[in-house]
Give the backbone structure.
Amino acid sequence: MNPIAAGLAATTGLAMCASVAAIGTPSRWRARVVGVLTAVSGTAGVAAGIAAVTGIGWRAELPGVLPLAGLTLDADALSGWFLVIVGAVTTVVGIYTIGYAGGDGRGPGSGTSLTVLPVFTAAMALVPVAGSVPTLLAVWELMAVASLLLVLTEHRHRAAVRSAGVWYAAMTQAGFVALLVGLLWLAAATGSVSFAGIRSAAGHLPAAVTGAVFLLCLAGFASKAGAVPLHPWLPRAHAEAPSHVSMLMSAAMVKLGVYGILRVGFDLLGGGPRWWWLVVAALGALSALYGIMQAAVAGDLKRLLAFSTSENIGLILLGIGFTGVLAHAGNTLAAGLAMTAVLLHTVNHAAFKTLLFAGAGSVVRATGTRHLDQLGGLVRPMPVTTAFVATGALAAAALPPGNGFVSEWLLLQAFLHPGQGADTALTIAAPLAVAVVALTTGVAVVTFVKAVGTGFLARPRSDCAARAVESPASMLTAMGVAAAGCVALAVVPALATPALTRVLAGLQLGGTPVNREVLGLHLAGTAASVRPLWLAVGIVAVTGTVAVTARSLGRARRRAIAWDCGDGPLTARMEYTATSFAEPLQRVFDDVLAPERDIDVTHDTESAYHVAAIRYHQQIPDRIENRLYRPVVDTVAAVGTRARALASGSVHRYLAYMLVALVVVLVAGVIR
Amino acid sequence: MSHDVSSQLLNLACGLFLLTALGVLWRRQVSALVSLLTLQGALLTTIAVLLAAEHHSAAALAVAAGIGILKAGIVPWMLRRVHRLVPDARETRPLVNISASILAAAGLTLLGYAAARPLVAAASSASGRATPVGLAVVLIGFFLAATRQRAISQIIGVLLIDNGIAAVAFLATGGVPLVVELGVSADLALAVLVLQILTNRLHATFGSTDLDELRELHD
């Protein structure tokens, strides 16, 4: 039996077992059983994915499973790459669920939530191996509906969850409609529903058709990926969903949007004209900048992570766009480099975002709040969680020796080597892209310093933060696995080069120009090379040496409280809060972010010169959302309110509507 | 029975079928409406029997028998029971008066014939050419349901629609599979049962079966 088939069968089979087990198991054991089965199912997915990236290839037709079209599965190296991501995240989430959902059998531990969770993971595992348009649409919709149900897990407790659910449902359905129209149009134009048939026939389609199909598919996939301006669901859903669901959505589901763009753009439509990829790159640049700016000023830990997802997807889309543009300019070397960076960054982002959302989940579980201004001082009660979150934050800030550094470095190399024969557009776009990546990375450093510094270090700013306790062993194990993944990706990314070569070959981009040296990456045709392992070892060694030398050789240290102005011990009220930490940056981007500040000064009744209290309230609205979506939502609501007049409650009127509709249809038929 | 006579009889039955629908629109007395509906059920059965004879099909004959029992027997019996329980159910003030209703029915019949032209053109037999009759009855049934006040008139409208659909099915295809007809009939019997109970409850609660009384229930 083909190992891919075996792995996929095990993944879906175990997920179905977990789903059924969630219904039949008493609440005390439910999370444990479902968590273990889901984790094993994810591991089977990783195995299937690894088998697929080795280039075995597997194709199966299951005509009886879906009505009319049947189920077509087709696994190539690209499928395998994303299957590994989905499987690995599923494994970590499975382990995490054991502790996270193992409370009183409510909320994330409820029967419904745990029944849907494996369905969601199985649907995600099937998306990259879908081999035909109906199969892709079916599993895509299954994934969307399952994730929506999971987002709504805590809808009884908070109104914000319901609002997030409505936003997510509306946007995911709109995206699905765009995909439906785009892919069915493609299938109709090529006369084939299977990807193999479309691939061979797509070259003969008129440019207008392929362009329209690409834009529709881009809208559908980019909205799932959370690219700005199709992002408003993402900060809501990621923040309001239970954390294990946020992990799955942010680390795995949004990557499938990236997969869709790669599959349709490069594979099915075979590249296409340059303007497609300029659009993608522009979308990516906008997402990266807007996402990280919103993340930098976000006070809600999970909202911060969600906007950071938008940012990373932006970088990935920027890389995809440049791959297309560079390939069009004939520079296959730089194109391959950009795609290598994209693929590595999808894995890296999946790894560190799994870890960070797991950490956020632990924090919320321990303190009951997501607001950074109320956290602080968690390093003492939760040392292990803090260490893991710091690892993830290092990666997310793209600093060496984190794994985010490797892929962003590769991305920059691609932008810095646009080639000799580059035309005007590319000559202008490449330095701009470098600037975007540089600015994004810089702001990302501030963002994650803020997240770790105000969230975990210093003194607790509220009682709930002071009462925090460390998470159960299973959650720590899950975070440990994710952290180990981050470290492995940071020090030995070179192990992935054979797989990358096969994925790139499948996308008709030649091979990867990244040569594998011993524990390092060297770029063909350039002098650029990086040795992440030595970088990590070097940084650790230098830091350690400096610390040890300073201790042993420096003067004897004197302990004193800093910055207390002689006014006794520091209190939590004297600390930087997340808001005040981000304030200078927010001032720089004031025109872009347009924050709404509100300062209330209360004076003493005796003297107007004596201030009794100052209240500072600040809100940073999502301007893109307000400008783009608010008018649409308002119009729909107004039309809906007016349309209520149609439903007067009279049975006769309803019957008359039906009669009139029938007569109109018949008359139209007669006239035609 | 020769082929010619059979098709003549079929045409006659179809004509009467349409005429009974018009009669339902014309009369106001509930007992008369139920009689007309019984007659229409019998005519539908006749059409089904004639078609079964033409195709020499025992299954079609069984379907015809089932239709006869349901539409000329059980349904009218249920309606009479409603009428006995709610004796004042005379259609006093329809939303569209009788003469205008008849005119509208003429227009709807015309529309039915115009819309069914492709069906007629595709048909080879006499039965196929009579298809528009069924369509016209569907439209008239809809019109009746939309313009009458009493709950029982609504039931009769729905029954006309169903009769029309059944007639189209028989005339266009020359017979419906037994299973399909069984399913449809079961649905219909259930719908009539529900409407009957609803009418009784309406009468018991409000002392009238005027559906406009229900207007307050919306939203």
Notes: The interface with chain A takes residues 95, 108, 111-112, 114-115, 117, 139, 142-143, 145-147, 149, 154, 157, 211-212, 214-219 of chain B (CB under 8 Å). Chain B is about 80% helix and 0% strand. The radius of gyration of chain B is 18 Å. Chain B has a mean pLDDT of 81.
